[in-house]
Design goal:
66% of the residues lie in helices and 0% in strands. By secondary structure, the protein is an all-alpha fold. It has a domain at 315-400. The model has no long low-confidence stretch (mean pLDDT 94).
Length: 408
């Protein structure tokens, strides 16, 4: 009988100890993505083998990346995304207790050796990674006395690297009251730990107490939006959508841009009128109305978009692009966007603005005016704009348009 062929991984050779230098952040990020892709591909066919590869990669992350400059945050972000993909593979993999315990021992040593806590998310979900209530309970028994001693020590500054692992194991093993009692020992109301208390209260069916417990976690340097989202989830799960929206919906909205924030809220409240969501979000950012221009445009609220663009600073290049894209479909909107671009250019607003940006805004305004049969009126408005005062930014716009404009 022939033995099954041993799988040969590609990524280990690329994650040797110290393989990446100080300036190799981009390469390290690329190799990490490739490794995750390889592991996920294998896990689809063989979940146990995929989990074995995930454990192996986690062991190699710190030794391989120890010398890389991570100050930009890019590398840490890629590591977190990698762990988000790898941890479920380990959790869901079929494995007997012996294999699971071997994985846990290896991961625990990797976390102990980790110099910058890259593997922090692994400890945060340690109870799930244990794979069973029994194993999670055993780990809780091993860790709880150390954590209790750390949190009751009268000398400040003590830290136990396995704190979240212990709390996670208590949660998974169903020791909810013990978990809550333990959290009361910590001298600070830190959401990083208290989120497990919220989960414990939910498991006990105490939703109102869970919201109160989460609210009590707010404070300096605590993630308000994350806490709001946790409370929002509780209310939505109870069917209290309107109260969830009113109390937490807008505060829990997160995204890399204003339009991403809107989409996050709209996705969670599909029955809510989108224009009302936008209005409510605008009200949360007084003085920044212009930054909601793109969102209003996407919702085809063209009049509102132009109103927002003129209400507070809005990037002239964004306005000019909108004018160019809507010349035929919405010429009135295109004209408003181009005129707003010229207005903010004359106010000195914009990043790395050149004369070409001014000329394009002017040309798009006239293109739209031609479609609306308003060329003379628009030329007159622009002339008034460039002659309004003698500021440096107005002189810049006037000089940029010198070859195109003539006194009406």
């Amino acid at each position: 009988m022939t033995k099954p062929k041993k799988h040969r991984w590609t990524f280990p050779a690329r994650f040797r100890s110290g393989v990446y230098s100080w300036k190799a952040s981009r390469l390290a990020c690329q190799r990490l993505r490739e490794a995750v892709s390889e592991i996920r591909k294998v896990a689809k066919k063989d979940p146990a083998l995929g989990a074995k590869g995930a454990v192996l990669l986690m062991e190699k992350i710190w030794p391989a990346l120890a010398h890389v400059d991570s100050s930009s945050g890019a590398l840490g972000s890629v590591v977190n995304k990698a762990l988000d993909a790898l941890i479920p593979i380990i959790i869901n993999a079929p494995a007997d207790d012996k294999t699971r315990n071997q994985w846990l021992d290896r991961l625990w040593q990797a976390m102990a050796d980790d110099g910058v806590d890259y593997l922090g998310p692994v400890g945060d979900r340690w109870g799930e990674i244990c794979g069973s209530v029994e194993i999670a309970g055993q780990w809780a028994d091993d860790l709880v006395s150390t954590l209790r001693s750390c949190w009751t020590d009268p000398n400040p500054g003590n830290y136990f690297n396995g704190a979240t692992a212990c709390l996670s194991c208590l949660l998974v093993s169903g020791r909810y009251q013990e978990l809550l009692d333990l959290l009361e020992l910590h001298r600070y109301q830190m959401w990083h730990y208290r989120r497990y208390g919220v989960e414990a209260l939910l498991a006990l069916g105490r939703k109102v107490d869970a919201i109160g417990f989460a609210e009590a976690s707010r404070g300096l340097n605590e993630p308000d939006s994350v806490i709001s989202q946790a409370c929002e989830d509780i209310l939505i799960s109870s069917g209290m959508h309107e109260e969830a929206y009113r109390r937490y919906g807008l505060g829990a909205a997160v995204g890399n841009s204003y339009i991403a924030r809107f989409r996050a809220v709209a996705k969670r409240y599909p029955a809510k009128d989108k224009s009302q969501i936008l209005t409510d979000l605008i009200a949360t950012t007084p003085g920044e109305e212009g930054k909601w221009f793109a969102t209003a445009k996407e919702l085809k609220l063209y009049d509102l978009a132009i109103e927002l663009a003129n209400q507070s600073q809005c990037d002239p290049k964004t306005l000019t692009r909108a004018a160019r894209g809507y010349l035929d479909a919405e010429p009135a909107f295109a004209l408003g966007a181009a005129m707003a671009a010229l207005h903010w250019l004359s106010q000195g607003w914009g990043y790395e603005v050149t004369s070409l940006d001014v000329i394009e805004a002017y040309d798009r305004a006239l293109d739209a005016a031609f479609r609306l049969n308003k060329v003379d009126a628009v030329k007159g408005q622009i002339w008034q704009l460039v002659e309004s005062n003698g500021s440096a930014s107005v002189r810049f716009v006037r000089q940029s348009l010198r070859s195109r404009m003539h006194k009406p």
